[in-house]
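Bug report (template v2)

What were you trying to do?
Predict the complex of my protein with pyridoxal-5'-phosphate.

What happened?
Run completed; filing so the output is reviewed.

Input:
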Amino acid sequence: MSIGPREIGAAVGVLAAGDLSRYSSRGPSRTTRLEREMTSWFGVEHALAVNSGTSALICALVGAGIGPGDEVLVPAYTWVSTAAAALAVGAVPVLVEVDESLTMDPIHLAERLTPSSRAVIPVHMINLVCDMDAIMALAQDRQLVVIEDACQAIGVRYHGRPVGSIGHIGAFSFNQHKNLKSGEGGAVLTNDRRVFERASMYHDVGSYEREEFASDEPLFVGVNLRMPELCAAVLRPQLRRLQALIDKLRTHREIVVEALSSSAYSCRLGPHNDPDDAVGLVITFDDPEEASRFGQNRGARRLLDTGRHVYTNWQSIAARRTAHAALDPYAWAARPIEFDEHSCPRTLDILGRTCTVELAPEIPTPAFRLLARRMVR
Ligand SMILES: *Cc1c(COP(=O)(O)O)cnc(C)c1O
């Protein structure tokens, strides 16, 4: 999403009023308004704005009561934050392979479950969608909490429902690279009042208004993960343009798909969990060398080469280094959890043969059409 006059106006409005935090605002703050607007856009009961996607995942886990001794299933292809969030609450991440849709393989997920499995975090990578029907069915069967990491797919739908609103809890990021951006920022979505109240308490060590809370959940200590008013102000006008952004991404995707049909590369469109409503684009090759060559094109990239989105590059997690030696979630786990570069060979094979291209919504569509042809030639 590009930052334009509406975002600049909104930011100036906050600065001119001098109300930089949600509690200094007279009347409903920008943050409160953003939360209300998100509940209606995404069709959920509760939304909590926080200061990052990582914070949103941590608040979601805390909200669901996940902690030491618990295992949290995460895909081997995701930004490192998904796994780090589990460790931040004292739980351990357990890696699950992705399939060719580039999202968590529900069959491998079922194989990785143990009596200590408490939560699963399916991640909707690069505007793709997970196989939520299979994951929700399994979760119901095995009593798992489902936290959707929708940080990279805000506004995308799965069978008609926005991602982030399908699981028990959803997490968004509004960092510089996401569909909606405020530099840093995030949000937690849920229909579960207790989860919402626990997440709210945790994200705010002490300023919130208790009377907003209806349940009998006792007050516990939190930290400060609050969203600044400037961030909320610049996100609100973007939220109003979110559908237009998604529509444009979809149009640009179609253009690339069409260009690929006459490409010299021997590649095919990867499988998608909701092909009729696809926004994210997966290009699969048989030969990793050819994928690597394609990935050198401007605007294209091979997914294996995207740094800490691949579990083999999560050095601090593989080394089990936490801020203090005694704060060791692995020591609190019910069993030894193995994790090294060989843990998910299928994920590495798939990422080595898969590329995506930037759908560049900031570029006018006629210009993008020319670019796309050049990109896949
Ligand atoms: C960006 C991202 C996060 C974390 O978001 P931050 O706002 O950078 O903390 C988590 N998960 C995924 C999949 C992401 O892409």
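What did the reviewer find?
The pocket of pyridoxal-5'-phosphate is lined by residues 52-54, 78-79, 81-82, 123, 149, 151-152, 173, 175, 186 (CB under 6 Å). The mean pLDDT is 94.
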